[in-house]
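Case study.
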Amino acid sequence: MRSHAIAVVLLALALLSGPAHADKMLMTRVPMKADIAIEYLKSAIEEYGYAVAHVQMCDSGMKGFGLESDVYRVVFFGKIDEVRRIVAKHPGFAAYLPLKIAVVAERGETVMSAVNPRTFDAYYPKDREMKIQFGRWRNDILDIFDEVYRAAGGKVARRLPSNTP
Amino acid sequence: MKTTQLLLAGLSLFIAGQALALPDGRALYIQNCNACHQFQGAGGIGLPLNAAKFRDYSDDYLFKTIRNGRPGRIMPAFQEMSDAQVKAIVTFLRKRTDTKPRAYDPSALAGDPTHGRKLFEKHCQRCHGADGQGRGEGTGVTLSRKRAFLVMPPAIANPGFQAAASDRLIQQVIRVGRPQSGMPSFARLGLKDQDTADLVAWIRKLGKRVAKRPRIAPDEPPSHVVESPYDFDTTVANVKQALVGANFRIFPDRYLEQGLTDEFSVNQRQIGIRFCNFNKLYDMLKIEPRLGVVLPCRITIMERANGKVLLVVPNLKVVASWFNNDQLLALWKRMEDTFNDIIDEVTL
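After joint prediction, the assembly is written out as follows.
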């Protein structure tokens, strides 16, 4: 009975925890012009307790080369204590800090993308704290995306199991 | 024992609940597909998903396309979804396009690949590429850049497409074309059913020729950390000099913590040297519009508590693997070499 029970529990956990190759990229499209969307994005980021470190403009420098998007920006954000704690322990992770979200205008809409922080899980298999951190960042980014989507008048459904591996 | 049983009961209830709740196809589409395909199906990084083409597709084709994605062509494989969730998306797309699935005889077509090849070279190659991997830079109808095509011709040799599409579905697409996207109807141009069957035979051959995708070694670290033999300020100066020498434009320095805390508390011994080569960057953005998630290029220099000075750079091999975009990999190699050269030059 006991080993049987453990097997069921293990199976259930395997089913619920999703595959090893979950999405490497988090993305959303909001039906809203990019210059407005980016303002909503910044305030949502702050609402979730992060500071917006700065916004990098890529559009102006690239116009001359044929970029046609009127907005191509990267928003950098983070929490100082998280950044300090992680860089002290894993200096190599500084390459990916602060976190960032790319914002691109497409017609009257806006596409936002970020690397799924859980992509990094595999690189810190022994560090539980990092695993928890990556999961929290991922959830926050998805919630921030939903927030902007809602601001654009979209109805946000409860996230479904496929999105919570 | 009691607790195990309780746990079991709870888990089975939870799983049953998950399985019973009918998945919401519209919500799933918005969360998983909308960013690339757009809500009305106009397309973006992904292809248009419109009524005209949905009339030619079987639900089986749509189901398998979602499940398998297009390996190396940006579209991810949605393997974590349940069958019910994938079906819910298909149902939603049927409703939105107001179309009915087309049924196909699943048996293979008998075609002559040698003749098919001749026809392919004459009619298809200029858009889909001699190897069937798609021509031009990038995918879909991404609007943020100049494009050689109205819609970037998809990779029809791609294993994702090959596994999803039956012979007769492919034949139907060739017959009717995709006039809205620039692909003509080849039935109108005079190709007979035997010609299109021959084309299918050749397209299947192209599918078998696709090379296995490179896999990165599991022990590749996400970033490289190199100790500098020089002090902090000298290291910063050396990095800048090397970047200028390699024709990069350097942005103003930023401390790693800048903007996250007040200017008096910022650690000034952690600095990011940001640089860019707009020309190369633009080439890459045409192929991968999401590249911004790893921009701009940055070398981070930090002095540790023990006085050591470290250079930190992302491992571009690992970064490239996140995009599921094989076109990007070729350009990326050059970037990787430049990064490595600079680190070598600076730490010599």
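Observations recorded in class. Chain A touches chain B through 79 residues (CB under 8 Å). The radius of gyration of chain A is 18 Å. We will return to this complex in the next lecture.
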